[in-house]
Amino acid sequence: MTADSPGPKPRFSLVEVARAGIRLADEQGLERVTLQAVAKDLGLTTTALYRYVDAKDTLLELMVDVAIGPAPHLTGTLADLVRTWVEARWRSVRSHPWLTDVGLRTTPRGPDGIAWQESLVAGLAGAGVADPLGIACQLDLLVRGTPR
User: Fold this and answer.
1) Rounded to whole angstroms, how far apart are CA atoms 148 and 130?
2) Closest of 92, 93, 90, 87 to residue 74, by C-alpha
3) Percent helix, strand, coil in the chain (nearest 5)?
4) Which terminal CB of the chain, N or C, has fewer other CB atoms within 10 Å?
5) Which long-range contacts (CB under 8 A, 24 or more apart) does 32-36 make?
6) CA distance 33 to 21
7) How open is the CA angle 100-82-75, to the nearest 5 degrees?
8) What would the pLDDT profile of 85-136 be if each residue is shown by its tens digit?
């Protein structure tokens, strides 16, 4: 949706829509997150929610990006940067346990999800790791795939 789009101005930002989904997932579980439930939480009809997201998968991508938040700043030795990244990622998973259910189905596409991957890949590359992208993906899968 752009500022010059026809129709009324949107009442909510995409972050607010994502937070409504996050609230539902945190309180009732990921299986309870539907477009209808999120729309109801926001005081919208399901049809009106399509102004913000075109499908549940889009909503889930937004929810993941907002739930994980900004990437941590990585400094120090290889061990320090890996520990910082893994601990920060683990905190986000512990705060939102449903991330283990949805996280493995998607590759990060939102700005925060991409920033998390970029920060780790850059840190690993800077520390001389031979396959920084491969190692970053494995660490991410390890944290997101760890059972609760």
Assistant:
1) 31
2) 87
3) 65, 0, 35
4) C
5) 33/59, 33/60, 33/63, 35/59
6) 6
7) 130
8) 999 998 988 899 888 887 555 567 789 989 999 999 999 999 999 999 999 9
For residue 104, the one-letter residue type is: L
Contacts from 45-52 at CB under 8 Å and sequence distance 24+?
49/17, 51/1, 51/7, 51/10, 52/1, 52/10, 52/12, 52/14, 52/17
Cβ neighbors of 143 (< 8 A, separation 6 or more) are 86, 89, 90, 93
pTM, rounded to two decimals: 0.85
Sign of CA dihedral 100, 62, 120, 90: negative
